[in-house]
């Protein structure tokens, strides 16, 4: 008996139609092909399945012993997909009620699906492999469509567009010497912009930006305070950066010579930490408010503002010490206060959470006892 085996390595049939695989028999396979063609007419696996039906009908007309089946893998990677195909081939072979030796004719739509051939060969002899190629793909008109499909495929665009975009970004470096000349400037700018575009398409930044805008729109219409808190926090971050730069300028003006890197960092932190801490407290309170409104608030979530304050106290004291604003005693006291504040908040909310968690089952059991009475 010849088994016509249609291979769908990434399980487009199961994911797009809900068909359970493997599909065995002429009529079930035809139903699966029609369902997949209806769900996604552009899927190349549609042609694979119809090609399998064509081969089956041709051999059946010659009165040969033949059966057709569709086996699929999954979208979790080549190894897991190959194992899934092997298991389904075993299922198909076990379902064949024949005393004849079974050989297989494997039908695929490309080299990726053909990577599973060694798995199939380990279970059944293979008489041949047939790759289905759509004739229209040879036309110039469909080359544009094929390239467009490549750009829309997340797997392909990540492996092709990102390296190409990096190469286009590296190319302008060779034109640095002639950057001010018109031909070099035009070519370098064009190459850099095209490289940035390809990298953004490869990473799917456009889709992610659309998703972020959609989430922001939903948050706005849902009245979530997190969105407002993030906007206020962003403004506070900007003010903190400005304050840190002002502090750094003051330190540099008062210094007799050049200041070292530790002093520069300390000045930036000293001038901005209050604003950054206020931004952290704002965002944590906004998140806590939304969790409370949604009924998902847990006691440990209340630790966030206290942690922000603890970290801010420690960083403020350390930066002030490097700027000679405080002494070692004040630094030690600030480190102790910050540590104790974080530990105290953790213990307090942990005790409250465990206490109320223990009381909830008792209240529920009391309610059930009251119901029985």
Which runs of at least 5 residues are low in confidence (pLDDT < 50)? 361-373
What portion of the residues fall into strands of 2 or more residues? 5-15%
Helix content: over 70%
Total number of strands: 5
- Tally of separate domains: 3
Order of secondary-structure elements: EHEHHEHEHHEHHHHHHHH
Distance between the termini: 71 Å
* Major sheet characteristics: 5 strands, mixed
User: What count of helical segments does DSSP give?
Assistant: 14
Query: What is the alpha-carbon Rg in Å?
Result: 33 Å
Average pLDDT figure = 81
Task: Please state how the strands of the largest beta sheet are arranged side by side.
Answer: 2-3-1-4-5
User: Structural class of the secondary structure composition?
Assistant: alpha/beta
Shape: elongated
Could you characterize what this model shows?
The chain is built from 14 helices and 5 strands. With 373 residues, it is α/β, with parallel strands linked by helices. The protein has 3 domains: 2-133, Rossmann fold; 141-203, no CATH class; 223-372, no CATH class. The longest helix is centred in the last third of the chain and has 45 residues, at 328-372. Mean pLDDT is 81; it is low at 361-373.
């Amino acid at each position: 008996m010849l088994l016509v085996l249609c291979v769908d390595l990434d399980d487009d049939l199961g994911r797009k139609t809900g068909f359970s695989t493997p599909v065995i028999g002429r009529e079930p396979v035809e139903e699966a092909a029609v369902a997949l063609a209806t769900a996604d007419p552009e899927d190349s696996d549609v042609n694979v399945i119809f090609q399998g039906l064509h081969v089956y009908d041709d051999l059946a007309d010659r009165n040969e012993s033949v059966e057709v089946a569709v086996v699929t893998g999954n979208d979790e990677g080549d190894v897991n997909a190959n194992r899934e195909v092997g298991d389904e081939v075993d299922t198909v072979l076990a379902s064949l009620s024949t005393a004849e030796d079974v050989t297989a004719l494997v039908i695929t739509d490309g080299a990726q699906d053909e990577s599973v051939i060694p798995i199939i060969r380990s279970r059944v002899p293979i008489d041949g492999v047939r790759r289905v190629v759509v004739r229209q793909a040879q036309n110039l008109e469909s080359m544009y469509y094929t390239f467009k499909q490549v750009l829309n495929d997340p797997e392909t665009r990540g492996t092709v567009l990102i390296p190409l975009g990096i190469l286009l970004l590296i190319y302008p470096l060779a034109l640095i010497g002639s950057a001010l000349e018109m031909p070099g400037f035009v070519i370098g700018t064009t190459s850099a912009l095209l490289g940035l575009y390809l990298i953004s398409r490869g990473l799917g930044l456009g889709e992610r930006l659309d998703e972020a805008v959609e989430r922001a729109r939903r948050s706005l219409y849902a009245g979530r305070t997190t969105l407002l808190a993030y906007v206020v926090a962003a403004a506070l971050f900007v003010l903190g950066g400005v304050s840190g730069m002002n502090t750094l300028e003051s330190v540099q003006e008062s210094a007799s010579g050049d200041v070292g890197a530790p002093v520069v960092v300390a000045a930036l932190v000293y001038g901005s930490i209050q604003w950054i801490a206020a931004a952290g407290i704002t965002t944590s309170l906004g998140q806590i408010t939304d969790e409370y409104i949604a009924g998902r608030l847990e006691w440990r979530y209340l630790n966030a503002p206290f942690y922000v304050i603890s970290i801010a106290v420690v960083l403020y004291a350390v930066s002030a010490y490097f700027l000679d604003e405080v002494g070692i005693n004040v630094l030690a006291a600030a480190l102790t206060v910050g540590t104790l504040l974080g530990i105290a908040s953790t213990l307090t909310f942990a005790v409250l959470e465990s206490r109320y968690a223990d009381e909830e089952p008792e209240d529920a059991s009391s309610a059930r006892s009251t119901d029985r009475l």
